[in-house]
RNA sequence: AGAUCCGUAGCUCAGCCUGGUUAGAGCACUACACUGAUAAUGUAGGGGUCAGCAGUUCAAAUCUGCUCGGGUCUACCA
């Protein structure tokens, strides 16, 4: 007996998935999908490594679904797609997790716990949830190689990172410099931005703020200020720049004043409120109100009363910030420690930068390069040098007179602490150098461990000189295909434009150590690029410095490149001095950015030959990536570091296409967080609804890059609508194909010999294949999914299957029936393949169910076969168009029936369709039978112009006409609106029509208007677009009788079903007490018998044991039993 | 604070790039129909100042600017 298509009680996605998963594992389906394509063109994919020290969330499902579907699609397109998995294992979250677990802080490391033990803990914690991740990977159907992942803490991985760093070092792109970082003097350590973002670090505090006055140096550049000041009679001679600060302790370190180029500034004549001396001050015009009262403008300067509140002022000049650039001023608080020479630059000048605002202060920013990132940046730009007059404990250095040795904030909890900021302010007041001193409340960051205020402090750090190749990176970025485009041009593009050098240094314990050894004075250094090199250097050091040094490493090979071991290694410089390792670790983002190289590790032979790319195979075929995908939050993370390293190391892009997916929010649009308790557990979601439904929902609901409001209701809908429909269609097919034993053994019937409707669905299917392929090729899976969704629902299930149902269950196993089976089979199998990238389980299941019976494909998994290719020869747009007409016409008729309340079972005589052009009639003609049977009407009559029934409507074709007439459009439109029926026919007959618009002639062409039929006088019509349909709603006695017969058939079918008869059972029917219905039943007896499979239909006068039913509100008694032949 | 994305029906989204006059789907809701796919399906209906304002244009959901609201990233700064 032939194999049967599997039939099911109901759709159960999770159980299908379990079954398919088991099959994949058994058959090594993933491995096979790669090995089958051996020798084929590679499609290179990079897996962004997740960190397995936290639980995976639903947002991981979307990015992985995205990655998976692209890889599966490309595999089906014939490419070989290797997918090496990876784990990100270093970094602060892991350290923090370990500290929390052990109940320790950073200070305890090296005291309560050794670095060795600490790092061992980190190593253990790193893959804590690896099982969960692997489990999710499996369950969601993400095909990635988990057997041989790259792990960033592996020696071979770190070794490759070292090699990369050394390459940068050799190119002169690695340098040590200071950078301004958050620093906690109380804790004696720098803080990362992550630490600064701990809750509660920003606190509202009241600080002493001061507006200091910097005296302008009089010279040629500043002449315009002094001249303006002197013009005003009786004004003081001196000009001051006003600058505000909330940290007066930074004033001794001041080296510049920064203004905004386009900000309006004014020179104001007034008095110093403390010394009452006449002064001229410069500040932003927009901030005048903060210091001066409008009513005192142009007040009486001569009558100024120092004791009174009234401070007269007047504007002497107004100018843009640009005019102030390069002006010089006298140092505010000169001391031996802060002379211009000690600054190392050319300080005390006015600078321009765009960070200046007029929100607060004076619009002139006091700039102390050591204590602010902006200050440092602008200071560097202008070369004003740098002064760090506060030491690491937070106190002033020597050489600052009365302030030396004082803490700038109360870091030591001194009970008698006197605020040095107040003292500085008082000094300024006395020296006529302060305009306003007051307490100011603002939000300021505090160290999350000591609760003391942070200060921004220059710390040594190693940098990669990314700015050196900024232009090249921008250029390379333009060749990358970004999805969405805006992220690449906007967010990423801007980021590149504003790039700063990459600060690599991290003062941590668990991470990749910087492979640089230096002599104590920093005059000699070495950057190590491999383990072999390190060993050689160790041996050398042992020889030069003596055998005791590095005694742990006398053997070959270092067991662990992490701290503390590498820190114990002492190397020797060229001149024979000992060198120690720079204590920093590197930014974990370097780890992941270097994964294209480090995932393979170094090839020792290539290394020895000094090759440019000494990485193990298959690096050669795996760089750059064709495709990567991660969340948008990686734009400045992984996307950036990959790009930077690709450009820095090999002047190449690291990836050709990048898809950045948006966030997953909860159903109300809030970010998911543990705190809010609105996180969606991916495991239970998949378990309950299935991975495919989840994937389909995630992909089709919104473009991957839009943020997605995750709602379980949406998954349910997808389950019901898409999967339910597709499953039903399959189930329908299987049911009848099994009855008829269809196994696609017959030769395919040439498509042009199949019925019109088969040709149509196949044409639509090929169009679908074309569009879906285009969408996937363009990395638009949402479009692809929606197209498939629509086809399955609207075309296949709702039209093709519905209209063709009878073909499957009626009659013999004829050519027509075989055609129907072949057509539906092709549709189902093609859909399985089209959707396979998104719905890997269901597609494989569907494909398997079909293929196991027909054996049409030698390969048993849908993921091993090729993606469908559109057969253009089967696409018939005319056919698709007329089927659309049929659907529209049917819909219109049903809508008319609805309006007059005549049910579809009641046959009607005719519909009228006005046709304005012969082509339309030809089109409808071909689908006439479909329309008639669908709406249960006997005939279609076409009304043409000649009949004179049609009333036409004319409308301008704005698109065509607008281009030509432009601004006359309104007048033309009005003129057309006034057309009568005669005008319209004239235009139709002659193809053009002369108008007069604004007393100018205008020839209207026929293609510049749209003519539709509006009405058929005396009929009820309905229309959609150019199609208008009228329905004859007269129910003649004949039609009524037929309607009764149909109604009876419906009742008997119900009885059959209620009685539980088999589809093929034949029955006997008796009808009694039929009254007025009797005539109907007698007349249509043959029809009724055929429909309900009755061997006998008797209409009797009286029936005793029948069932009382109603047919069109008329009572009748009916008796049904199985025919003896069926029993 | 800056950059960027988003704002269309009660909800989820198309349409916007390339302007064209009645703004579409699905879900939900209401009514009806179908009943040999049946815990399925269909049809119809109500439901919109296309966030707001201004501009460009004969014509704006669509292009431009601004404002408001939401998300994200980067900052946190005198």
Automatic annotation (TrEMBL):
InterPro entries tied to this protein: aa-tRNA-synth_Ia (IPR002300), Anticodon_Ile_ABEc (IPR033709), Ile-tRNA-ligase (IPR002301), Ile-tRNA-ligase_type2 (IPR023586), M/V/L/I-tRNA-synth_anticd-bd (IPR013155), Rossmann-like_a/b/a_fold (IPR014729), tRNAsynth_Ia_anticodon-bd (IPR009080), Val/Leu/Ile-tRNA-synth_edit (IPR009008)
Residues given in the record as ATP binding sites: 674
Domain Methionyl/Valyl/Leucyl/Isoleucyl-tRNA synthetase anticodon-binding residue range list: 758-910
Protein's UniProt name: Isoleucine--tRNA ligase
Root EC class: ligase
Lineage: Bacteria, Pseudomonadati, Bacteroidota, Chitinophagia, Chitinophagales
One GO CC term, this protein: cytoplasm
Chain ranges for the short sequence motif 'HIGH' region as given in the UniProt record: 50-60
Subunit structure: Monomer.
Comment block on domains: IleRS has two distinct active sites: one for aminoacylation and one for editing. The misactivated valine is translocated from the active site to the editing site, which sterically excludes the correctly activated isoleucine. The single editing site contains two valyl binding pockets, one specific for each substrate (Val-AMP or Val-tRNA(Ile)).
Coiled-coil residue spans: none
Gene3D superfamilies, sorted: HUPs (3.40.50.620), Isoleucyl-tRNA Synthetase, Domain 1 (1.10.730.10)
Domain Aminoacyl-tRNA synthetase class Ia stretches: 20-707
Family stated for the protein in its record: Belongs to the class-I aminoacyl-tRNA synthetase family. IleS type 2 subfamily.
Catalytic activity: tRNA(Ile) + L-isoleucine + ATP = L-isoleucyl-tRNA(Ile) + AMP + diphosphate
Motif ('KMSKS' region): 671-675
Function: Catalyzes the attachment of isoleucine to tRNA(Ile). As IleRS can inadvertently accommodate and process structurally similar amino acids such as valine, to avoid such errors it has two additional distinct tRNA(Ile)-dependent editing activities. One activity is designated as 'pretransfer' editing and involves the hydrolysis of activated Val-AMP. The other activity is designated 'posttransfer' editing and involves deacylation of mischarged Val-tRNA(Ile).
NCBIfam families: ileS
The protein's required cofactors: Zn(2+)
Subcellular location: Cytoplasm
């Amino acid at each position: 007996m032939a194999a049967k298509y599997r039939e099911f009680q109901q759709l159960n996605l999770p159980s299908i998935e379990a079954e398919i998963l088991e099959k994949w594992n058994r058959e090594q389906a993933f491995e096979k999908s790669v090995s089958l394509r051996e020798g084929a063109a590679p499609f290179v994919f990079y897996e962004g490594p997740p960190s397995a020290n936290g639980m995976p969330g639903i947002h991981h499902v979307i990015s992985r679904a995205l990655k998976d579907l692209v890889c599966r699609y490309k595999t089906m397109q014939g490419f070989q797609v290797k997918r090496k998995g990876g784990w990100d294992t270093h970094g602060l979250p892991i350290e923090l997790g370990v500290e929390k677990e052990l109940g320790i802080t950073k200070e305890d490391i090296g005291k309560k716990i050794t670095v060795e033990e600490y790092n061992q803990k980190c190593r253990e914690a790193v893959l804590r949830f690896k099982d969960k991740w692997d489990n999710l990977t499996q369950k969601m159907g993400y095909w990635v190689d988990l057997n041989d992942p790259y792990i960033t803490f592996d020696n071979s991985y770190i070794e490759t990172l070292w090699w990369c760093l050394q390459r940068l070092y050799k190119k002169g792109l690695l340098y040590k410099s200071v950078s301004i970082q958050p620093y906690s003097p109380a804790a004696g350590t720098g803080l990362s931005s992550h630490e600064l973002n701990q809750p509660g670090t920003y606190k509202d505090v009241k600080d002493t703020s001061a507006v200091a006055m910097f005296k302008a140096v009089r010279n040629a550049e500043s002449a315009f200020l002094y001249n303006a000041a002197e013009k005003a009679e009786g004004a003081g001679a001196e000009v001051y720049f006003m600058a505000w600060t909330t940290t007066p302790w930074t004033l001794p370190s001041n080296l510049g004043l920064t203004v905004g180029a386009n900000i309006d500034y004014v020179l104001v004549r007034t008095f110093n409120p403390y010394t009452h001396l006449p002064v001229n001050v410069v500040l932003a015009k927009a901030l005048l109100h903060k210091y001066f009262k409008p009513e005192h403008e142009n007040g009486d300067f001569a009558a100024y009363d120092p004791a009174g509140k009234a401070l007269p002022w007047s504007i002497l000049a107004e100018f843009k910030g640009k005019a102030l650039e390069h002006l010089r001023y006298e140092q505010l608080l000169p001391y031996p420690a802060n002379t211009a020479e000690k600054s190392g630059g050319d300080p005390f000048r006015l600078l321009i930068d765009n960070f200046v605002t007029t929100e607060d202060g004076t619009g002139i920013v006091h700039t102390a390069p050591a204590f602010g990132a902006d200050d440092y940046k602008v200071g560097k730009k202008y070369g004003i040098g740098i002064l760090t007059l506060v030491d690491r404990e937070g106190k002033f250095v020597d050489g600052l007179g009365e302030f030396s040795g004082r803490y700038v904030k109360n870091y030591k909890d001194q009970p008698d602490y006197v605020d040095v900021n107040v003292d500085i302010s008082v000094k300024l007041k006395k020296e006529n150098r302060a305009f306003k001193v007051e307490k100011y409340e603002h939000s300021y960051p505090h160290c999350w461990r000591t609760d003391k205020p942070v200060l921004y402090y220059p710390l040594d750090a190693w940098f990669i000189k990314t700015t050196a190749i900024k232009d090249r990176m921008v250029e390379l970025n333009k060749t990358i295909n970004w999805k969405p485009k805006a992220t690449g041009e906007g967010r990423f593009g801007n980021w590149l434009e504003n790039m700063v050098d990459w600060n690599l240094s991290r003062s941590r314990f668990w991470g990749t150590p910087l492979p640089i050894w230096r002599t104590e004075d920093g005059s000699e250094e070495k950057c190590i690029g491999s383990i072999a090199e390190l060993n050689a250097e160790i041996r050398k050091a042992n020889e030069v410095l003596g055998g005791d040094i590095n005694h742990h490493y006398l053997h070959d090979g270092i067991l662990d490149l992490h701290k503390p071991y590498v820190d114990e290694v002492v190397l020797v410089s060229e001149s024979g001095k000992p060198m120690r390792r720079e204590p920093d670790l590197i930014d974990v983002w370097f780890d992941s950015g270097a994964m294209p190289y480090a995932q393979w590790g170094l090839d020792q032979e290539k290394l020895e030959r000094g090759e440019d790319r000494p990485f193990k195979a298959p690096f050669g075929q795996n760089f750059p990536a064709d495709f990567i995908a991660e969340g948008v939050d990686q734009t400045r993370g992984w996307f950036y570091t990959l790009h930077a390293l690709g450009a820095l190391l090999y002047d190449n892009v690291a990836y050709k296409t990048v898809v950045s997916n948006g966030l997953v929010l909860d159903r109300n649009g809030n970010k998911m967080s543990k705190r809010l308790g609105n996180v969606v557990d991916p495991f239970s979601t998949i378990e309950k609804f299935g991975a495919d439904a989840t994937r389909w929902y995630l992909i089709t609901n919104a473009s991957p890059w839009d943020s997605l409001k995750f709602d379980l209701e949406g998954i349910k809908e997808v389950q019901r609508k898409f999967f339910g429909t597709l499953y039903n269609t399959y189930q329908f097919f299987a049911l009848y194909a099994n009855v008829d034993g269809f196994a696609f053994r017959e030769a395919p019937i040439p498509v042009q010999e199949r019925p019109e409707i088969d040709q149509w669905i196949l044409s639509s299917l090929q169009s679908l294949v074309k569009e879906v392929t285009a969408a996937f090729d363009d990395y638009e899976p949402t479009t692809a999914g929606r197209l498939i969704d629509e086809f399955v629902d609207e075309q296949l299930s709702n039209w093709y299957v519905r209209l063709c149902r009878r073909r499957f269950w009626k009659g013999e196993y004829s050519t027509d029936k075989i055609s129907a089976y072949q057509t539906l089979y092709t549709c189902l199998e093609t859909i399985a393949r089209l959707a396979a990238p998104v719905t890997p389980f269901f597609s494989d299941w569907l494909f398997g169910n079909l293929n196991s019976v027909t054996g049409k494909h030698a390969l048993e998994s849908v993921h091993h076969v090729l993606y469908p290719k559109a057969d253009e020869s089967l696409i018939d747009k005319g056919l698709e168009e007329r089927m659309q007409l049929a659907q529209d016409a049917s819909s219109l008729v049903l809508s008319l029936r609805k309006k007059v309340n005549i049910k579809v079972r009641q046959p009607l005589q005719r519909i009228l369709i006005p046709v304005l052009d012969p082509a339309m009639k030809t089109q409808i003609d071909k689908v006439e039978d479909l329309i008639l049977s669908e709406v249960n009407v006997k005939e279609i009559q076409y009304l043409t112009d000649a009949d004179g029934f049609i009333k036409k409507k004319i409308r301008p074709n704005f698109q065509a006409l607008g281009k030509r007439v432009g601004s006359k459009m309104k007048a033309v439109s009005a003129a057309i609106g006034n057309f009568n029926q005669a005008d319209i026919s004239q235009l139709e007959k002659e193809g053009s029509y002369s108008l007069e618009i604004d007393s100018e002639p205008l020839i209207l062409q026929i293609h510049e208007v749209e003519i539709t039929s509006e009405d058929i006088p005396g009929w009820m019509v309905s229309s959609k677009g150019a199609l208008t349909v009228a329905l004859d709603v007269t129910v003649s006695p004949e039609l009524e009788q037929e309607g009764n017969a149909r109604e009876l058939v419906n009742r008997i079918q119900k009885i059959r079903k209620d009685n539980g008869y088999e589809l093929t059972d034949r029955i006997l029917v008796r009808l009694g007490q039929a009254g007025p219905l009797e005539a109907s039943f007698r007349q249509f007896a043959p029809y009724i018998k055929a429909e309900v499979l009755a061997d006998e239909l008797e209409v009797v006068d009286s029936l005793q044991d029948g069932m009382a039913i109603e047919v069109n509100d008329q009572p009748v008694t009916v008796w049904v039993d199985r025919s003896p032949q069926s029993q």
